[in-house]
# Entry
Amino acid sequence: MFILAENNLPQFPKPMKTLTLIFGFFLVATIACGQSKDEQEIRRLETHWTELLDQGDTTSLLQIWTDDYVVNNPNGKIVTTKDIVALMKSGHVFPAVERIIEKITFNQNIAIVMGKELQQPGNMTSNKDEWIPRRFTNVWISSDNGWQLASRQSSAVCTE
# Structure
């Protein structure tokens, strides 16, 4: 319900103005953020699985990876979950990686994450200008178990 003011424009009662402002704020915030619930979850998982890799937590990684998770690594070798877990259990520590997501594309129950990453070199320098640049693609699948990482590809960036 509204009241006509002197200028014949509708004037809403104060409670309705407040609700309209609150609704408008949430609408603008949702549009401004532009991230769906699935996108927020994929971004969280991208950070989380990297942390688990840094911690060497194979038990938790096996819950995030699909049973047939496969990686085409920067050395051009295709490795499976079994290969990665065996490498980690042998004492291998993966160098730190900073991942920058540039695009997430959803197609039904698949999320494709693309971007760049910086890998800490073997001399373990903390100067990120010296870190090794790479490009990556991660493929996530949504199932009854939630989002799981199904495959990954990472390539070194050629600098000339």
Notes: Residues 121 and 130 are 8 Å apart (CA to CA).
